[in-house]
Amino acid sequence: MENIMNSLPDMFDKYSSLALGNVIVFAPKIIGALFIIWIGASISGRIQKRILAYTEASPRIDTTLGNFLASIIKYAIMFAAILMAASLVGIKIAAIFTIFAAMTLAIGLALQGTMGNVAAGILLIIFRPYRMGDYIEADGVEGFVDDINVFTTTLRTMDNVKLILSNGGAWRSTIKNYSSLGARRVDIDFGIDYGDDMDTAINIIKATAAKHEHVINEPAAPWAKVKALGESSVDIQMRVWCKPEHYWDVRFDLLKSVKEAFDKGGISIPYPHGVEIMKKG
Fold first, then answer.
1. For residue 184, what is the enclosing H or E element?
2. What value does the CA radius of gyration of the chain take, rounded to a whole number of Å?
3. Which of 85, 8, 1, 104 has the alpha carbon at shortest distance from 41?
4. Residue 253 near residue 238 (C-beta atoms within 8 A)
5. Is the Cβ–Cβ distance between 29 and 88 less than 8 Å?
6. What are phi and psi of 186, to 5 degrees?
């Protein structure tokens, strides 16, 4: 026991010298590796911004494709920087690829959802069911497309809420694109009193709709016909076309302007009436 205690100072000196030697040898390499990763992150970020700026400024390049390619290039540069950093500290690149190949199956099984999102992102770029700026409905949510990257699609709702939608969820769902065809139809039902003239009401609706600055005549001019005979009203449906970005303005404006035109034209909109029956006791 006494011998062990006496040898402890020598052992401490030996291992401390060894540790110090390793620190002196590896510290510059570790610092250099961290510097390479920092440079890679800086360069990838700048290149991504330049690609996005170029695609947004060029009418020949689709913004959606440019955004997707920018994210791919960013990740590729970062991956290359990590490989260079690993090589600098003495890790063999061939060994990294061997380990990566061995782990591919396990990672694929563990991250099936993530890999599925990447595959779905590629399919979304190839088939283009929606583009940047389109107003869509997918996977139960809707909004304007603000971003499409490798893993997710970012939507912005009408009330300015940011929604992050997985590419896999979007691809597997029914996608409604309200912007891609260039025109959207606005359907509004109006109920008029049974005693009012239906043709007069129809003419008022058409004339009012035709005056709106955002109502267009292609693919069809403003249309109105009797839709149904309700319990207390004759229901007339109006159909007008507008550009997708004007949909809500047209809808809200016509609800107000048609009501005002009905008032001036002597057309009344009925409201439910309650009948109270008194029984004699």
1. strand 184-192
2. 34
3. 85
4. no
5. yes
6. -105, 120
Check whether residue 88 and residue 52 sit in a common domain: yes
Cα 171 from Cα 88, distance rounded (Å): 41
281 residues of the chain, pLDDT tens digit each? 555 555 555 555 555 555 555 555 566 777 777 888 888 788 888 887 887 777 777 766 667 667 777 777 887 888 788 878 777 766 666 666 666 666 655 545 444 566 778 788 888 888 889 988 899 999 999 999 998 887 889 999 999 999 999 998 999 999 999 999 999 999 999 999 999 999 999 999 999 999 999 999 999 999 999 999 988 899 999 999 999 999 999 999 999 999 999 999 999 988 766 556 666 65
pTM comes to 0.62
DSSP annotation of 134: -
Q: Are 199 and 171 in a shared domain? A: no
- The answer on 249 and 165 residing in a single domain is no
Structure tokens at 251: 């809808």
Residue 162 lies in a domain: yes
User: 230: which residues sit within 8 A by CB, 6+ positions away?
Assistant: 191
- Residue 82 belongs to domain spanning: 10-110
The residue to which tokens 């809420």 are assigned: 161
Question: Is residue 277 in a domain?
Answer: no
Nearest-angstrom CA–CA distance, 240 and 221: 7
Same domain, 92 and 16: yes
Overall number of domains in the chain? 3
Listing DSSP states for 107-120 in one string gives HHHHTHHHHHHHHH
Per the CB < 8 A criterion, the answer to whether 165 and 141 are in contact is: yes
End-to-end CA distance of the chain: 113
Q: How many residues does the chain have?
A: 281
